[in-house]
């Protein structure tokens, strides 16, 4: 079995769509679709992924199937009132000033957002918003990640402070990073089982009839990292903190069935942007931070 994870194009997060640059990237990706042999296609319900899929698949006749669990891994932390979380997460955005975070757009996502989180980031009875906007899990200071080895441990990450806080998924009971992770992995395992790959204790996948079918996901960086952590039985924080996949990049993973009926997934490429190079486009800086601190033209 072959899995392709394609990140959306350069994003306009406020409107949940693509920038003009993102449109160019998606059109460049379309030139690669025939060579990729994308097979069965699935897409996140969020606008930036849907538009990327639409542009990339234009003219193929392929209509991707929406999967709710492919939305960006929604693990927003409410840092208001927590000095610890405010130290862990850098670049906090104030609710009334941020340009990347738009509460009206956020609330309009409806069932994609935990109802309690929507309530906590709505104006109070006096019309006052909380001081800080929600903050995503994978943007933590390296000083915190590297000084907490439990975050990179295949098992101990599940009891870490970060894993047991945060959270944001459709079911109101899903209120921590760990609960969000388990929620998504249950859906992912059920998805793979439909293709004949059943997860076993220990992390291998049992299959009675292996397949060379390709499945393509048009989605996001965060969800790709956590899905890969499931396939590789490692901490999601290890991948969230260590990988960077540029917009419209392609990540390819295939099964290896060295013993009959037992499969493991291995990566052939991660974050490939060769289609952009061939189109004369430089990969977007989205998802990266400044290469050197004194470069003020790059995100800090």
Provide the descriptors you would attach to this structure in a database record.
alpha/beta, Rossmann fold, 8-stranded mixed sheet, 10 helices, 16% strand
Could you explain how this protein is built, in words?
There is one protein chain. The chain has 300 residues and is of the alpha/beta class. It has a domain of 173 residues: Rossmann fold, CATH 3.40.50. Helices cover 31% and strands 16% of the residues. Strand 9 and strand 10 form a beta hairpin. Helix 1 crosses helix 2 and helix 8 packs across helix 9. The radius of gyration is 19 Å and the shape is globular. It starts with a strand and ends in a 22-residue tail after the last helix.
| Structure classification | alpha/beta
The name of the CATH topology of the domain at 2-72 and 177-278 is Rossmann fold
Order of helices and strands: EEEHEHEHHHHHEEEHHEEH
* Percent helix range: 25-40%
Mean pLDDT: 87
Kindly report the spatial arrangement of strands forming the biggest sheet: 5-4-8-1-9-10-7-6
CATH top level class name of the domain at 2-72 and 177-278: Alpha Beta
Strand-residue fraction?
15-25%
Q: How would the global form be characterised?
A: globular
Largest β-sheet summary: 8 strands, mixed
Count of individual beta strands:
10
CATH architecture annotation name of the domain at 2-72 and 177-278: 3-Layer(aba) Sandwich
Separation, N- and C-terminal Cα atoms = 39 Å
């Amino acid at each position: 079995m072959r899995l392709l994870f394609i990140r959306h194009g350069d994003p306009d997060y406020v409107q949940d769509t693509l920038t003009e640059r993102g449109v160019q990237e998606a059109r460049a990706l379309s030139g690669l679709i025939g060579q990729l042999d994308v097979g069965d296609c699935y897409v996140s319900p969020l606008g930036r992924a849907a538009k990327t899929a639409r542009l990339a698949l234009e003219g193929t006749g392929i209509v991707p199937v929406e999967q709710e669990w492919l939305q960006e891994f929604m693990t927003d932390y409410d840092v208001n009132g927590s000095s610890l979380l405010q130290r862990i997460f850098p670049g906090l955005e104030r609710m009334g000033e941020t340009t990347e975070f738009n509460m009206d757009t956020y609330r309009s996502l409806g069932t994609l957002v935990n109802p309690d989180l929507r309530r906590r980031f709505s104006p109070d009875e006096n019309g006052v918003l909380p001081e800080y906007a929600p903050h995503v899990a994978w943007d933590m200071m390296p000083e915190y990640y590297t000084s907490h080895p439990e975050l990179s441990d295949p098992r101990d990450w599940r009891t870490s402070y970060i894993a047991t806080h945060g959270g944001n998924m459709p079911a109101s009971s899903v209120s921590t990073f760990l609960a969000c992770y388990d929620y998504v992995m249950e859906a992912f395992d059920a998805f793979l089982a439909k293709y004949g790959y059943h997860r076993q204790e220990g992390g291998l996948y049992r299959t009675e009839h292996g397949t060379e079918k390709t499945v393509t996901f048009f989605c996001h960086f965060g969800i790709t990292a956590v899905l890969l952590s499931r396939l590789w039985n490692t901490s999601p924080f290890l991948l969230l903190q260590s990988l960077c996949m540029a917009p419209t990049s392609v990540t390819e993973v295939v099964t290896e069935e060295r013993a009959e009926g037992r499969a493991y997934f291995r990566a052939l490429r991660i974050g490939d942007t060769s289609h952009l190079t061939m189109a004369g486009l430089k990969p977007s800086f989205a998802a990266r931070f400044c290469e050197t601190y004194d470069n003020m033209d790059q995100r800090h």
